[in-house]
Amino acid sequence: MFTFKKLFNIDQNAKTVKGIKRGFQTAVMYLAPYKTAGVNICPMAELAACWKGCLTTAGRGGIALANAVMNPFGIEVPDNAVQRCRIARTLLWANERDTFWITLHKEITAAVKKAERKGLTPCVRLNGTSDIQWEKFTPYYPGGFAHTIFEMFPDVQFYDYTKIGKRFYSELPENYHLTLSFSGASARYSQMCFDTVKATGCNVAVVVRDKAAKQKLLDGGTWMGYETTDGDESDLRFTDKGKRLAVLLTAKGRARKDDSGFVIDLD
After folding, report:
1. Can you give the pTM of this predicted structure?
2. Distance separating alpha carbons of residues 155 and 73, to the nearest angstrom
3. Which partner from 99, 241, 246, 267 sits 20 to 30 angstroms from 72, CA to CA?
C-alpha cells in the first residue's frame, strides 16, 4: 500500500518559491492526475489531451521518467516516491473521504500558522495536478457545520488552474481564483475556451513549446487577440492584473515532447 507523510508541498518547487519574494507562502496539493490512481480526477483530460503531457512528470515527479512503468491502475508513470505519494493521497480522497477532510483542515491550519511565523501571506492550491471542483463539496468537520473548504478558511487565498469551463459560469467563493487552461487538441475544447473567456472575462493559461516561443508571444503582446503575460514569473495567478489575459507557460516534463495540441507551437 502506498503511503504519504503530508497532503501539501509548501514552497518546495521552483515556481512557488518565487512567491516568497512577493510575500506569499504557497501550499500545493499534488494528487495523481487523470486515472493514475484508478479514479479519474481530471474529467476533461481526454478531450483536452493533457494527461500524457501532464505537469506530474515535471521536477522530482519525473525522476526515472525514461524507465516509466505500468502502475497497478494501468497508467504508465515514473516509478518513484513522488508518484507513489500522489497515488496514496488520491486513494485517501477516493476511499476515506472523512479522514481526507480532517487531514486537509489540519494541514491548512498548520500552513497558515507557518506563514504567520514567517511574516508571509498564506495561499493554497488544491489542484496542483488534479481538477476537482472543490467548490461543490461541503465536508462535515467534527464539531462544526457543513461548509466548503473556502468557507472554513475565509481569510486564505485559494487558486487553481482548471480545464472545466462551466466552473466560470457559477458563482465561485470570493477567496477562490481560477484560471482556465487552454488546449488546442480538439476544436470542441479550444472553442469552449474562447467562448468561456469571452463570456466570463476569465484568464486563460496557454502552454507553449519553449522559452523562445513564449518570448516571441510576449514581444508581440497578444495571443489570439488576448493580451499576454508571463505565467512563469510566479505561480500567483490571483495577482495577474486584468481580464481575458493569455497567461503563457513553458512546457515542462513530458509536455516538452507533446504533439497532441495541448502544447502550442508557433508557425
Report:
1. 0.90
2. 38
3. 99
